[in-house]
Each structure stands twice: as C-alpha cells, then as structure tokens.
Write a structure and sequence with these properties.
The protein is α+β, with helices and mostly antiparallel strands and about 220 residues long. The chain contains seven helices and ten strands.
Amino acid sequence: MTVLPLAAMAVTASVLALPVAAAAHPSGDPQTVSVARDDQRPEVVRVRWRVGGPDDLTLLGVSLGLLPPERVLLDGAVDYRATDPAVVASSELFSAYLLRQITVADGARTCLGAVAESKALARAGATIDYTCPGPVHTVTVAVRTLTDLNPAYRAAATGPDGQRAVYGAGEDSHDWILDGAPAVVATRRGSGAAVRVAALVGGALVVAAGVLLVSWRLRRRRAVA
C-alpha cells in the first residue's frame, strides 16, 4: 500500500473537492451580460460579461490552472484574495476561455472576437468585440460561461431597446435585434392604434354633423310652414 505525503494528500483532496465547491456558488448573484452594436462600427457587436461574485473568478482561476487548487477548501468555501481578478484577467487562458464560451454569429456567419484589456475584472467585467463579415441587424449570441463548472449557473442578459434574456445550461443561445427593430414595431403598433382611434372619432363627428343638419332642415321647414 502506497502512503502519500501529507502535502500531496492535501492537494489531492482539494482537487477532488472542486465539484463540491462549484455546487455552492450558482446560488449567489448571477452573471450579467450586455449585448450592443458599436455605433461607429455597424459590423461590430460588443459583449460585456461580469461574474456575479468575485469568488467565482477564484473558482474559474483554479479551473484554468491559474490559481492553486487549495484555494478551494474542503467544505466548498473559496479562499478569495483581492489579487485574484488581476491574475485571471492578465492570462491568455482566460481570454481563450471567454472566446470559447461566448460566441456571436450573424446567421451562418461567425463573428471573430477580441477581448479587451481589463484592469477591474471583478467590478467592471470583461469586454469582447466581435467583428462580423458585414453590418449586423440580428445576431445569435451564445453564453456558456461557468456552466462548464456547474450547470446551475445563470447569466442575466440585456440588449438594445429593453431586450432581456436569461442564459443557462440547455438555454445557452439567444437572438438579439440590434437595429432598434422592437422600438419600430412598437411605434407602428402605436400609430395603428392612433389611426383607429382617429377614425372612430372622425366617424362620430360625421354622424353628429348629419344629425345637426337634419335637425336644422326640420326646423327651417316648420318655420316656413
């Protein structure tokens, strides 16, 4: 029987505890995602991603091999440190992870992403610019961040004109309209309603005018008689 050194046993136990630790975090604040088109570059879609809690960055850093596994404790707690976001943000492994887990497509055309430098990952999140083959109007954005650690994670997403969606395991893809179409639709519906109201009011005025004309003619005939 092989006896492991205490240090090796501690590291092994920490690694084995990772799934338990991951299970404890989806119950916290959800990730947030915002989707928008660049006003100056109509072919660029900008996605901003932010974790729900900074300890999620520690968990992600451990899973990417950027932080030591013993930072996730046996009871599932995460030993978060203020330097963790900077360690994660500065790694190419993290950028590759975002580009792998967040994708943008314009129909059948894939948009190429580039992660911007982030100096405040825990507070401001990460920004990714996706350049599409041409100007975009509707895009499909898939978000799978952290669900690879635990499927219970969710991401609350927002887009132009009040569009909203919730991403999760099995619901990791959503279509976003970027050119203000929802507002146009709403305006057209409003205009249609206004036309219908105007028609009803106009019809009522015509009927009232007819009644007044008939009444005036009757009075005139009586006066002549």
